[in-house]
Amino acid sequence: MLMLAAMLTIMSNATITPSLPGLQQIFADNPDAALLTRLLITAPSLLVALTAPVAGGVADRFGRMPPLYFGLALFGIAGTAGLYLTSLEAILASRLLLGLGVACIMTAQSALIGDYFAAPVRGRLLGYQMAAVNLGGLVCVTLAGVMAGYDARLPFAIYGVGLLLLWPVRRHLAEPARGSDGGGAQPVAGEGEPGWLLVVALMAGAAGMTFVMYYAVPTQLPYLLAAIGLDRPHQAGLALGATMLAAALLSVASGWIRLWLGRIGTPVAGFLLLAAGFWGIAEAGTLTLQMLAAGLNGAGLGLTMPAFITTALNVTPAHRRGAVAGAITSAIFLGQFLSPLATQPMVTYLGYPGMFHVGAVAYVALAALLFLTLRRQSPPAVIRPASPE
Questions:
Q1: C-alpha triplet 325, 333, 368: angle, nearest 5°
Q2: Ranked by mean pLDDT, which of 120-134, 262-276, 321-335 comes out on top?
Q3: How far apart, in whole angstroms, are the C-alpha atoms of residue 115 and residue 134?
Q4: What is the pLDDT of residues 307-317, one digit of tens each?
Q5: Measuring CA to CA, which residue among 84, 132, 134, 129 is closest to residue 110?
Q6: Over the range 118-137, which residues count as b (16 or more CB within 10 Å of their CB) and which as e?
Q7: pLDDT interval class at 80 (50, 70, 90)
Q8: Is residue 389 part of a domain?
Q9: What is the total count of domains within the chain?
Q10: Mean pLDDT (whole number) for 161-169
């Protein structure tokens, strides 16, 4: 059930990506259609960024399950509203409400993983969570690409799965005891490591910066593909599906890869893969090469995000996991929301290939910055090379 709930988070944004060109045509009489259709992808991210810390605090104070139930219901109701709303502005408003539902789901679900499982298993489960997110995205985006070929509005129906999950979640998930650590005995789980707030801030900042550039893939890639003659909705779905499949595979393996590369080397390697993927997208002229480049992007994300979330939860006191999950969630989705605002001006002045070239350079710079910053942290506080976490 935790993994099924995790799948919903990627749906909040990427599911309607193959519909963007079609929605822009439907609302062509709106002078702001080009920007508004892109904001439909990232609008939920704004509400998640603003409300996830509050949702995390609610989960710490009143329990994990109430915000999870509320989030699932709102996800299904607001997500399907695009089927019948008659203006881009109204659809945009429904997407903001969808973001509130996602904030509740994501913070409660991540905190439950922290409560149910001890630290070594927790790290692997967070990798599986990321895999579930991307496998759900693979299925939904591929299906949405087919559905968008018939009607650009049809992919909104996929969000109804949130309502379908309400009953099984109530049946199979239980509220954990306060301060639960999944049976683990490590001091870090109960009390937190020295300097844990700084470590959490570093992980949240890295996650947010990762997504500022990464979300150029779902928001700009369909338009780049159309510009090089790959303008059918299912082609965008295939490219994005390759991203999600690669992210799922690397997320599953990330706990074991972390044994070899360590807490620093794992996200740095992920950033370099992201850089290679962005450069490949800028240069590729065929669907096959675009899918390969998109796969490199997914592999990079599969290494970076589990590492950020695992490190943050492992150093945090048990009674603050909801708040920390909310902070990481907020950073991720703030990066997603800011992405089109940062990348659209680059597209205007540099074109789509130029924007992806800039993204590749930015990821190399992030890799260097993260390496230098983490090397200065106290090893006993944050580095555990013997655990896959």
A1: 85
A2: 262-276
A3: 23
A4: 888 778 777 77
A5: 129
A6: ebbbbbbbbbbbbbbbbbbb
A7: very high
A8: no
A9: 1
A10: 89
Instruction: Calculate mean pLDDT across residues 130-152.
Output: 79
Q: Is 179 a domain residue?
A: no
What value does the mean pLDDT take over residues 346-352? 91
The model carries a pTM of 0.71
* CATH code (residue 353): 1.20.1250.20
- The answer to the question of residue 354 being in a domain is yes
Please say whether the beta carbons of 329 and 103 come within 8 A.
Answer: yes
Tokens 């060109």, located at residue: 21
Residue that has been written with the tokens 């659809």 in this structure: 91
Residue 37, in any domain of the structure: yes
Structure tokens at 252: 């599953």
Q: Which pLDDT tens digit goes with each residue over 253-304? A: 887 787 788 778 888 999 999 999 999 999 998 989 999 999 999 999 988 9
Locate 60 and state its tokens. Answer: 């710490």
pLDDT in tens, 167-185: 988 888 777 765 555 544 3
Domain that holds residue 13: 2-173+187-382
Q: 3-state SS string over the chain?
A: CHHHHHHHHHHHHHCCHHHHHHHHHHCCCCCCHHHHHHHHHHHHHHHHHHHHHHHHHHHHHHCCHHHHHHHHHHHHHHHHHHHCCCCHHHHHHHHHHHHHHHHHHHHHHHHHHHHHCCHHHHHHHHHHHHHHHHHHHHHHHHHHHHHHHHCCCHHHHHHHHHHHCHHHHHHHCCCCCCCCCCCCCCHHHHHCCCCHHHHHHHHHHHHHHHHHHHCHHHHHHHHHHHHCCCCCHHHHHHHHHHHHHHHHHHHHHHHHHHHHHHHHHHHHHHHHHHHHHHHHHHHCCCHHHHHHHHHHHHHHHHHHHHHHHHHHHHCCCHHHHHHHHHHHHHHHHHHHHHHHHHHHHHHHHHHHHHHHHHHHHHHHHHHHHHHHHHHCCCHHHHCCCCCCC
Whole-angstrom distance between the N-terminal and C-terminal Cα of the chain?
A: 21
Residue 261, amino acid? L
Which residues, in sequence order, are CB contacts of 341 under 8 Å at separation 6+? Answer: none
